[in-house]
Amino acid sequence: MKEFDYDALLKKLKETYPDKYPDLERTFLFAKQAHAGQKRASGEEYITHPCAVVDILADFGFDATTIMAAFLHDVLEDTPVTAEEIEKEFGSEILELVQGVTKLDHLDLGTNKEEAQAENLRKLFMAMAKDLRVIIIKFADRLHNMRSLDYMPHEKQISISRETMDVYAPLAGRLGISFFKCELEDLAMKYLYPNEFKELSEAVSRRVSERKDFLETICHQIEDKLKELNIHGEVNGRLKHLWSVYKKLKHLDIGIEQIYDLQAVRIIVDDVKECYTLLGEVHTMWKPMPGRVKDYISVPKANNYQSIHTTVITQFGEIFEIQIRTYEMHKIDEYGVAAHWKYKEGTTNVDSALDQKIKWLREIMDSQSDLKGASDFMESVKVNVFEDEIFVYTPKGTLLDLPIGSTPIDVAYKIHSEVGNHCVGAKVNRKMVPLNTQLQTGDVVEILTSNSSAGPSLDWLKFVMTAQARSKIRSFFKKENKEENIKRGREMLEVEAKRKGYKLPELLQQTDELNAIFKRLTIGSIEDMYAQVGFGGVTTAQILNKLIDSFKKKHVTQTIEEIETIAEKDSPSLARKMKKRSLSGILISGYSDFFVRMAKCCTPIPGDDIIGFVSRSRGVIIHRRDCKNIEDLEKDRFVDVEWDIATSDSYEATLKLKTENKGGLLASITTVISNMNISIAGVTATTNKDGTADIIISVDIHSLDEVETLMNKLNALKGVISVTR
Questions:
Q1: Residues 5, 59, 77, 459: which is the catalytic one?
Q2: CATH number, domain containing residue 33
Q3: 703 and 607 Cβ atoms separated by less than 8 Å
Q4: Are residues 299 and 215 in the same domain?
C-alpha cells in the first residue's frame, strides 16, 4: 500500500491556487486535527481519504471553496466538530457544501425498498439542483472509496458497488463526466462480476498487445497528414473501458475480436472546420465502412458529448475506429458540466450555458410534486436520466432531445405548456400520425394546435415519457376541473375503503395521521386531498394505507382474549391446541403461544410482510399481505402478527420458474439450490406449446434474504426466463 504524499498535494494546491493557498493549507490542518487518531479500513490515517478526494478535484480546476469543502466533507459525520464551528471558521458557503455531502451519506434505507431508493434519489437531485458542486464532491468521494474497496467486507463491497453501478455511474454519464463514469463502472464491475472482469481484462490486454505496432503506425501516418495540412493537433490511442466492452459483447453476442472500437485512434485539433477537413482526409487514406460514420458534432448527445466517429478499413483488411474532435470537445467529454464551471469565489451563480446543460435536472425537480409516489418518481428518473435519448426537429429546424419512446405530446410540452394544452394533432415527416406515435431520431415533428381545444386528455398520461409533459398535464387538470376532481376523488376513496372493509368517515377521524399525510404529500385540506386523488396526483393507497394502520392500532378488535373466544366458539379442541407454543416463529400481540399454520397459497417466510387470519378449525393462518386470497376472507377475523426474530426454523417457500424447454436445465437449477445447502421439498414441471416450461420448486428457506439470493442465482442461469414466488 503506497503511502499518501501530503507534501506533493500541498505543492499542487500552491501552484494551482496561489492566492488561496493559505486558506487551503489552514483547512487541511483543521481537517487533519479533526480526524486525528481515526483510521480507515486499510489501516491508513483517515485524513488520507479527504486528501485523495481533494487531489482528484484539484485536477478539475474547481474553485478553492470546493477544495476546502472537500477537505472537510467527512468532518461533520465522523468527528465532534459542529456545524457552528465550520461556519465560524470557514463561512456559510463551505458549511452548506459540507452539509450537502453529509446528507448524501445518510440516505434513508427504510422498510420499503422502492420508496427508500426514490427518497435517496430525491435527496441527490435536490442537492444537485441547489449546488452542483455537492454531487461533484460526492463523485470524487465515491471514486476514492471504490479504489480502496478491497479492505471492506464482501457484503459491503457488493452493496457499495451495486449502488455505484445503478446510481452514481449513470448520473456521472448524464452529466457528461466520463472521467468519473468510466472508472466507477470498471471498479464496480470488478466486485459485481469478478470472474468476467478477470477474463475480460486478460483478453483486452492480449488484444491491445497484438495491435500495438499496427496502431502506432496508424497514428504516425495521421501525424504526418496533420503536418502536411499545417494543422495543429495531437493523435493518440483511446482504450474502451471494460464495462462498455462487456455490455457490447453481451448485447451483440460476439467475440472480442469483433469489437472494432476496442482501441480507437483519437485526433484532437483546434476548431470544428479542421474536424470535417480531417474526416475527408481520413476517408481518402482508408476506406470508410458504410453506416459507421456518426456525427455528434452537428447533433450532440444529451450530455453534450461532441465528436465525429468513423470506422475505416485498410487495404489489408484491418478495421479500426477514428474519433475526431476539438480540444474543447475533449475537455467536455472528460469533465462534462465540470468543464464549464464558472463559480466565482463567494457566489453560487452559474453561467447560462451551464444552466442550460442541467435543464433536465430542473425539469425533474419541478415536476416531482405532481408525481404519484415512489414508483412514479423512479420511472421519471429512469426515463429522463438513465435512459438513452432520441433527437427530433421542429419544422423550423430546432433540435430537441427526448427520452426513447417519446411521442408528439412530449414534443408539444417541450416547446411550451400552452402548445401542449392546445395540441389537437401532429405530423411526423409531413404525415399525420396518432398522438401516441413513438418518435425516432431524425423525425421532423409538427404540432397542430387549436384555440378551441378543450385541453389535454387524461389518456395522454398513459403514453407520455417526459416528466415535463406529465407534470403539465396533471397541473392542467388540477386547476381546470377542481370540483369534478373533488367529487371523483371522494368516490374513489370511499369505494376503496369499503373494499378493504372500512368506512371512509371513520378513517378520516385519525387526525394526527391525516395531518402527517397532508404534510408528506404537500396537501392543504381534505378537499385538496380529494382533488389530488381525483386527477391522479395521489393514489388511494397513499392515503388509505396509513389511515387504516392507524385505525387498527387504536381500535384493536382482535385481542388475545377475543382470538381465544373465537377459537373456543368454533372448536374447543382448536382452543386447546392454541395454548401450545408455536414452533413457527410467529408472534401475535407479542406472544408466541398460539397454534398457527403457514398459508400454502403464498408460503410466507421471515422478512415477508404478513397478516394472520383466525380460521374456524385450523388455528391462525399466516398469509403474506400481498396474497390475493385474503381479499375474499372475513375482515373481522384478521389479526396483526409479526415474525419472532429469535426463531431459527426453516420455512417452505415455493418458487415458480419460466424457462426454455431444453435438456439439462433442471439439473442446473437443482445444482444451484444444492450448492446453497438448501433442501428441496418438491418439484413439478410442465412443458408449453411455445417452447417454454413451467417449473414449480418447493424449498426449505430460513430467511427472505436467502430466498432472494437463490432467486437471483436462478435468474442468472442461461435458459431461465423468470423466477417468481
A1: 77
A2: 1.10.3210.10
A3: yes
A4: yes
SS3 content of the chain, % helix, strand, coil (to 5): 55, 15, 30
Task: Judge whether 77 counts as a catalytic residue.
Answer: yes
Q: Is residue 697 part of a domain?
A: yes
By the 8 A CB rule, do 507 and 544 touch? yes
Q: At which residue does the C-alpha cell 464491475 appear? A: 189
DSSP state of 591: B
Q: Is the domain of 517 the same as that of 434?
A: no
- Say which amino acid occupies 119: E
CATH number at residue 706: 3.30.70.260
Residue 178 resides in a domain? no
| Nearest-angstrom CA–CA distance, 107 and 358 | 23
Query: What's the DSSP call for residue 508?
Result: T
DSSP 3: P
Q: How do residues 33-45 score in pLDDT, each as one tens digit?
A: 999 999 988 889 9
Q: Is 78 a catalytic residue?
A: yes
CB 270 within 8 Å of CB 233: yes
Grid cell listed for 468: 415535463
CA angle (63 as vertex; 57, 65 as ends), nearest 5: 95
Q: How far is residue 355 CA from its own chain's centroid?
A: 23
Compute the distance between CA of residue 276 and CA of residue 484 in angstroms, rounded to an integer.
Answer: 59
Active-site hit among 23, 25, 44, 78:
78
Nearest Cα residue to 132 out of 335, 389, 379, 370: 335
pLDDT, tens digit, 9 for 90 and up, residues 660-678: 887 778 888 888 888 788 8
- At residue 701, the pLDDT reads 80
Q: Is the residue at 362 inside a domain?
A: no
Residue 491: what residue type? E
- Say if 475 falls within a structural domain: no
- Is the CB of residue 649 less than 8 Å from the CB of residue 583? yes
Q: Which domain holds residue 43?
A: 6-151
Domain count, the chain: 6
> Full-prediction pTM beyond 0.85?
no
Burial class (CB in 10 A: 0-12, 13-18, 19+), 448: middle
